[in-house]
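Interim report to the steering committee. The following record documents the input for Cation acetate symporter (576 residues).
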Amino acid sequence: MPLQTLTYLVVGATFALYIAIALWSRAGSTREFYVAGAGIHPIANGMATAADWMSAASFISMAGMIAFMGYGGSVFLMGWTGGFVILAMLLAPYLRKYGKFTVPEFIGDRFYSKGARAVAVLCLIICSVTYVIGQMKGIGVAFSRFLEVDYSTGLLVGMCIVFFYAVLGGMKGITYTQIAQYCVLIFAYTIPAIFISLNLTNNPIPQLGLGSTLAGSDTLLLDKLDQIVTDLGFREYTTDVRLSTLNMFAFTLSLMLGTAGLPHVIIRFFTVPRVRDARSSAGWALLFIAILYTTAPAVAGMARLNFMQTIEPVPGEPMAYEQRPQWFKNWEVTGLLGFEDHNEDGLVQYGADPATNEMVTIDNDIMVLANPEIAGLPNWVIALVAAGGLAAALSTAAGLLLAIASAISHDILKGMIAPAISEKQELLASRLAMAAAIAGAGYLGFNPPGFAAGTVALAFGLAASSIFPALMMGIFSTRVTREGAIAGMLAGISVTLCYVFQHQGVMFVSSTSFLGDMPANWFFGIEPNAFGVVGAVVNFTVAFAVSRITAPPPAQVRDLVESIRVPTGAPAAGTH
């Protein structure tokens, strides 16, 4: 069966499943729309959280980043998984015990201020919109290749799918849809990895295959990859740090704090029945996430090796452009892979020297999706990867858009502007806000600022510098005041945004950018996407400093903080 026909069938079947689930689990109340009625089993919620979490950045972009960055790309693996430990231990149980619908609602109540709630909404929208741009980029990339259309058309198709099941089902529909999407994306990610590992190393376990010898050889796979990339002028794959050790530490910590502070992840823990279920959900989510995250380094290394050997089938003898393989031609159509014959010799020259490199466009985001084609796997595997990539991007986009819509309808409209509106009116407002958020995210997705993982990393930095410190201080300090919290959030996110915009021309350095050394005016050599940890330090410092010179919180607020930390049962979500 032709690849396009098979792709239509596989992707169409998964979309039909998602839409059927949305129709079956349509939200009929605000409690179901916001927190799925707070009745989701911890294992099911863990699976849904994993799908919500493993976005286009994880499925499509992360392995592509590691493929071109090597060891330096490990910041994503360590940061994005380590953050779940912080979330499970320090935030999720306490926020679930408080029992409200949204993160800004908790911040508004804890810091006894509608102003604090409004600032939290502002920070949430900035973080979520930045994050959702990366998802829209992933949707556009996946649809453009596998539906054989241009990027803009692919993005429009994806927007329509998200609109239908997210607006209809709310959190209830999204939760059950994400469970199905997790099953699709994890099979789509691991099955090609198993086949490729078998082909290259005769080992069916990709995690072990990465450290094994090549089939029919005594050479380790990673040693071979190091040799190929260094021969072409690139830095060694297995040891090259991400610009500097300090930058790698800051980047990892920024991603960890951002993970624990992202509202669309936190609200998933409001959907379980009890406090202990929140911590259990985080454990299950980490287990489900680990299946993909431990596979990603193997996918990255093997994809880079296959890519290099395809471009130069015989070492030292570049491939003739006329003889380029079919996968190369397929991705050229999307505009995400481009060749320009500088010296007009008809050969595809690829290397670290920008003066002679003729691969003028190699989008990191294509590596995972192109990997089965490069390896020559069967069409059904390629079609499965298409469905998995779309499931990853759609699941996270839906969760982010729900967080944005909840902030607009519940925190701004219901919480501050029109508190007397009925539940039916609030539900309608939520759906309208969701539709507006999808339209806005799609508009930004047509002109994304970078590849998916780079844009998403920025969103984590913004969450780390604004929301995470406010939540930590709100739970564990009785002394932080509303003035301190507001000043801290504004200072943290402002410092981070200013640093990012100051260096927007060099937002993200990768091994394919040929930028060489880091810019001299970076703060201690910390790149913009890793600056969230500095913003977090600023947030904490300003908040505590301002709190020392302002009146302490009222007694009832201090009692509230103490009660949140007492390990007893939780009220139902939506009550307190």
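Residues 99 and 575 are 6 Å apart (CA to CA). The committee is asked to note this result when reviewing the revised timeline.
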